[in-house]
Structure formats: structure tokens, C-alpha cells
Fold:
Amino acid sequence: MGRLHEDTAVTGRDGKLFVDLRRDWDIWGPNGGYVAAIALRAAGKLAPPDHRPATLSVQYLSAGKYEEAEAVVEPVKQGRSAWCINVALVQAGKRFLQAQVWTTNRQIGPRSNELTMPIVPRPAMLKIYGEIYPRESETFMFWDNFEVKPTRIHNRDDPPGAPVVQEWYRYPGFEAGGDIFADFTRPVILIDTLQWPAHHRGLAAYPNYIAPSLDLSVWFHEAPGDADWLFADVHTPTAGHGLIHGVARVWSEDGRLLATGSSNMLVTPRG
Structure:
């Protein structure tokens, strides 16, 4: 099992930034949300100390390898209250991810939220997956990084339902250490990853394709902070012309909207 705050940590050496991609986050290669989280933390290395992430936009160019990668970070806009920072993750001279992160220290402005968290059972009322379902041998080790509590039971012989995931997620042992960029890695991984499972639940049969993400956009609202369990509300209602599109929201247990995100996935035949 990986530890998110350690496995996304970016360290400096000889004036450059580096990170080791960990195999604990394997799912069709290094998980997209995992490498996006690394890019977010790399941006945090150069952002002013009083800034927090506002938006994250990611382009997945190819799959990384489980080895050291360089994070090339460049502030391209340094405003009084907002910075725009470009990040590239590079291995062997090849860029496999590029991202843009807006950061801000702005606090003034209106406060409103017309959205409310879905009415679902709280984590204390639910069982984790391991108590409900037997572990399947083909399960990616990626899923060992979480405790997951589904809000309803899904069986293999159930008819297809809505393309929706509504589940509680917890990262055991997570410690942001006061780093708000590290704290926001938690919703980033959920938003990227769960749009494919949501699509999968709307299918009548096991698909003969996969759908890796082409891109990812995340808008940050409030830091998780002391929140332990995060609720992922994910809908993937749209597919056509070789693309699948999903939208995700992540909430705290006390009903705060933490982050919203979306991506397009490219339909790719298996094998």
C-alpha cells in the first residue's frame, strides 16, 4: 500500500526537481490522477508560500515508467494575487505529462454554493469493500491505497444501472503536513480515476475496450483539511465518437464541496 503524501513528494537536486513514480499506484500504468497529483505538488514548490491551488489542467501525453522523473516547473504569470505555473513531467528526455496550475492568495469576494451533497449514508454506517466483496486476483494494486465504502451494493448479476459512482474514500495514514497542495491531491486522484468505473456501471456487459484519460481539469473549492472520509459523486453520462466524458464532485463528510472536475477519455480496444 502506498502513502500518498510520500509518493507524490517532489525533491530538489542540483537545482532541479525530481520524483520517483511508485508502482503502488499502478492501473494501466502509473495512474493518471497520481501523476497529476505529482504535477500539482511540483507547482506548489514554486508557488508563493501564501498561495493555494485554484485550478489544475492536465494533458496526458503518454504513460510514465516506474522510475525517477524530472518535474520541469515554470511560472508563466506572476500576478499580485494569482500565478500561472506550467509543469512538465519528463523521463529520458520525453515529456509524458504537461499541466498548468493557477494559484492564488485571494480571499475576498462572494461566498455562495447552490449545490448540496447527495443524501447518502455516512461512512460510520457502511462497510468497506473488503467486508462486502471477496478480493479478485486481477484487481490492480492501485485500489489497495484506499479504504472504500460504497453507498449501495453492486452484484455481478445486477442489470446495468446509471453510470454513477457514489462512494466514500479514505487514505489511511495520509498526512498533508500543512501543505495545501498535498492536501488537494486527495480529490485529484478520485476525480481522475472514478469516471471510468462510473461509465462501466452503465454497461450491460464487460467492455472490450479501455478508456485512458486524454486530459483532466480540476477546480478547487475548499481544502479537505481535517476531513478523513471524502465522498465522490461521479457521473459519466456521455459517450460517442470514440470519447467518453465524465464529471465528478468531491465532498467532505460535513458537506463542504472540496473540488469539481471533468475529463475526456479515449476509447481504446483491449489488447
About this structure: The chain has a mean pLDDT of 93. Residues 29 and 63 are 6 Å apart (CA to CA). The first strand starts at residue 11 and ends at 13.
